[in-house]
Amino acid sequence: MSFQNPKAPRGAESVLAEKWGVEVIGQGYTAVPDVLLANMGELKISPTEMVVLLQLMRYWWAAGQLPFPSKKTLAQAIGSSEKNVQKVVGRLVARGLLKRILRKKASDRNDSNCYDLAPLIVRLRGLVTQDFEARMRKAREQMSEPTAQARRPLYKGSRRVEKNGGFNVEQPKPPRPSVEYI
Q1: CA geometry: angle 76, 82, 86, nearest 5 deg
Q2: With helix as H, strand as E and coil as C, how does 61-84 read?
Q3: What distance, in Å, lies between the first and last C-alpha atoms of the chain?
Q4: Is there a domain that residue 22 lies in?
């Protein structure tokens, strides 16, 4: 049985639909920056912490609207307890990767927290800058090193040409050893 999606995917959704299938992408998807996935070790983010961050990203629909899933919702999604989610969020807050904002209901009771990912974004931007600077340093170093092509001796006609202080110095090829026949 094929799934008929009334809305045809466009742009990035089309590429994702080709990879995952229209019925899967039709349920929604979450954009995750590669710099986050590639630098979990650098940021000291455990797999459980990453799963909680991914769930928070799942509920972050617009830049101006902070996600506010409950601990229960997060716990059910990752197959864990609410207490464990609370501990993981606490670690992320303590390490400055996440900001937790308390919400109150009209009856002065606590509502689910809002979560601000801005501290994580600041750290990721710093990693991007560091990575860019490291790549530029490496490129400059590579440009200053002579390449294998530049180190190889050149031959012009029957004479060997050596690079000497930026000048080509022509040197005759060494004579071939003479062979005597008996």
Answers
A1: 125
A2: CECCECCCCCHHHHHHHHCCCHHH
A3: 90
A4: no
Produce one character per residue of 140-157: b if its CB has 16 or more CB atoms within 10 Å, e if not.
Answer: eeeeeeeeeeeeeeeeee
Structure tokens at 101: 């904002």
CA 58 – CA 30 distance, rounded (Å) = 6
Residue-number span of the structural domain to which 62 is assigned: 31-172
CATH number at residue 165: 1.10.10.10
Strands (E), 4-134: 99-101, 114-116
Q: How many CA atoms lie within 13 A of 56 on its CB side?
A: 28
Give per-10-residue mean pLDDT for the chain (182 aa).
49 85 91 93 96 96 91 96 97 96 78 92 92 82 69 56 54 64 62
Burial of 179: CB neighbours in 10 Å, binned 0-12, 13-18, 19+: exposed
